[in-house]
Structures are given as structure tokens and as C-alpha cells.
Amino acid sequence: KTPSGRPRSVPACARLIREPTLPTTVLIKGLARRDTNASLQAELARVGLAGTYDFLFVPVEQASPAAVRYRSVGMGFVNFDSHEVAKWAVENFVVVRSRRTVGATWAD
């Protein structure tokens, strides 16, 4: 309280600070170079995770300096709506493609 007895107002920046929360962002490892945001979305939908995330991103790089095509760098990020769903993905999301295994781990 202030010296006059009134409650102190909370600065706007302090209202933005939240209590620590459990992680919800997952790193998907082992994607093929041809994978895209759409193919990762389809894979998540196939295992029943459609509509459980609010952000999905598969980083890409230019295939070569002269190319206009882009390719995945082999990983993707998904931010799930809850820690419980993210935890399920980390523990259970495994896709085997020919000789490649796609899996999930916590993003740091």
C-alpha cells in the first residue's frame, strides 16, 4: 500500500509476467527434406492430434543458391494447447518411414 493507505497499482509490465508454466512446445525430429507444414499437419491429424495445437512450423532452406525450391531442414516445431497433449506427443509420437524414424522431444 502507498503511504496514504491506497493499494499500489501494478505496472503494466508486471501484469505480463506470469507464473512459470509447464512446457507445451515440442520439437519434431527426423523429418524428410520434402516435408512441409502441410505434411506435418497431416501426420499429426493421422495420429489424432488435429486441432490440439496453435502453432506449427517446419523451417526450410533454399535447396541450392540458384534454386527457387526450398527443402525442410529435418525438423519442425509444434506448440500444443496443453502440457498434457504435448507430453503425450513426446512420449508416443513416433512415425517410421523407410529407414527414418520421426519422433518428438521437448523444445528448449
Strand order of the largest sheet: 2-5-1-7-6
Order of helices and strands: HEHEEEEHEE
Q: Any idea what the shape is?
A: elongated
Question: For the report, how would you describe the main beta sheet?
Answer: 5 strands, antiparallel
Enumerate the spans where pLDDT stays under 50 for 5 or more consecutive residues. Answer: none
* Portion in helices: 10-25%
* Radius of gyration, whole Å: 20 Å
Q: In what range is the share of β-strand residues?
A: 25-35%
The total beta strand count reads 7
Structural class: alpha+beta
Instruction: Give the distance, in angstroms, between the N- and C-terminal Cα atoms.
Output: 39 Å
Give the overall pLDDT as a whole number: 84
Number of helices: 3
Q: If you had to describe this structure to a student in words, what would you say it looks like?
A:
With 108 residues, the chain is of the alpha+beta class. It is 23% helix and 31% strand. The chain has 3 helices and 7 strands. It has helices at 12-16, 37-46, 83-92; strands at residues 25-29, 53-57, 60-62, 70-72, 75-80, 94-97, 100-106. A 5-stranded antiparallel β-sheet has the order 2-5-1-7-6, covered by helices on one side. The protein has a two-stranded antiparallel sheet with strand order 3-4. The longest helix is centred in the middle third of the chain and has 10 residues, at 37-46. It is elongated, with a radius of gyration of 20 Å. The protein starts with 11 loop residues before the first helix and ends with a strand. The mean pLDDT is 84.
